[in-house]
Fold:
Amino acid sequence: MILAFVGTAGSGKTTLTGAFGKYLEGNGYSVAYVNLDTGVKNLPYSPDVDVRESVTAWELMEEGYGPNGAIVESYDRLLPAIGEYVSKILKLDGERDYVLIDTPGQMETFLFHEFGIRLMENLPEPLTVYLFSPDILRKPSDFCFARFFALMIDLRLGTTTVPALSKVDTVERIDDYRKFLDDIEYLTARLKLDPSTQGLLAYKMCSTLPELAPPTRVVYLSAKTGEGFDELETLAYEHYCTCGDLT
Amino acid sequence: MILAFVGTAGSGKTTLTGAFGKYLEGNGYSVAYVNLDTGVKNLPYSPDVDVRESVTAWELMEEGYGPNGAIVESYDRLLPAIGEYVSKILKLDGERDYVLIDTPGQMETFLFHEFGIRLMENLPEPLTVYLFSPDILRKPSDFCFARFFALMIDLRLGTTTVPALSKVDTVERIDDYRKFLDDIEYLTARLKLDPSTQGLLAYKMCSTLPELAPPTRVVYLSAKTGEGFDELETLAYEHYCTCGDLT
Structure:
């Protein structure tokens, strides 16, 4: 089973890849780790595949690139080797129970760069976990944004995408978050109360979610406490073994 | 009038800010330039406001941050000064005909970080120009993705967002691109032919676009040839002077 953790810088991809892998190993599974971040310094896991063996953002900065340019250029340089990376991951997928993919630090590098798109297109039914952290959720329309973003990833990568709130150990009133994220009807009713242009757009977008989105449930994860890991394991199992029914 | 150019690293924000500003100045307007990118080295314009005076990604990397971490941390450090940046931009807006805002290199830093959200919330009706380059458009579902992304920016920032294809001088068959981007019905009909799961999602999402999106037209820009600059000027005028009707 292949799981790819996708999210913005700071959403907790790398920490979670390490912690979830450890959890799976503790449950007796064999796990492979793939690092796709050319700009990461330290990893909390030992990667079986690591793009930094081909190129790092650091060496490109030494060549004179700025940080943004170095990140983009590193994936331009990785692109010719995409076939090799796909082969390595497929081989690992045949040997181990789980392959966990830790995607580039900046999410857009994965979603907008051909490297990310082509890699995902060539893997057999990977499950994408879209990680977003509680600090991006400040008002009701943000919850609509987060739910829709999972759909955008699905549209872009062509993979089943599970929305996952990370760092739930930092949230005091998690039930308030759950209500907005789990219950689209509740969220839609709440958005209807906001008369602003932004509120109206959020209301209209949220109203279409039930017909657009597969009825995937949201998972609530903490790399610190391991909360939600059993749920994610179940979701991965359902995705691979019961024809993609993630309700 | 305030225009913010938003897009991924490499979509052409900085070059376009410079070139469009020059065009406006050539037409007799007074123009102010705002640079919000902490990681840019050289600018093709002389900034009136520049976040690099407060912090740069470079100095944070010298402190030991990786490129991704340095970018995020730089906006964390800018956050306490957000009020000053808003004031400076408002002052410029009072003095000049146009204020052009060149947003962070990585789009997600602007869309997911409180700095970007709060800045935009506090400006009077800025017009956001969502720049995407032709290389992200490989298959019909990608056109749906690009059109939807403009809507996501609108939802997130609460600003009217114009989708703009950049680097059109690099495209040989621009009419093919226009057909897919301008004519949602045509795109929807085309997507219906794709029986894959991704195709079905794209078809469903695209079908909802007419009711979700304001009927904003797409602009086609080239910083190299100046193509579309008159169109963008007209759109900005319509946004500010004719109650947001951008059809």
User: Anything to note?
Assistant: Chain B touches chain A through 50 residues (CB under 8 Å). Chain B has a mean pLDDT of 94. The two ends of chain B are 19 Å apart (CA to CA). Residues 76 and 115 of chain B are 8 Å apart (CA to CA).
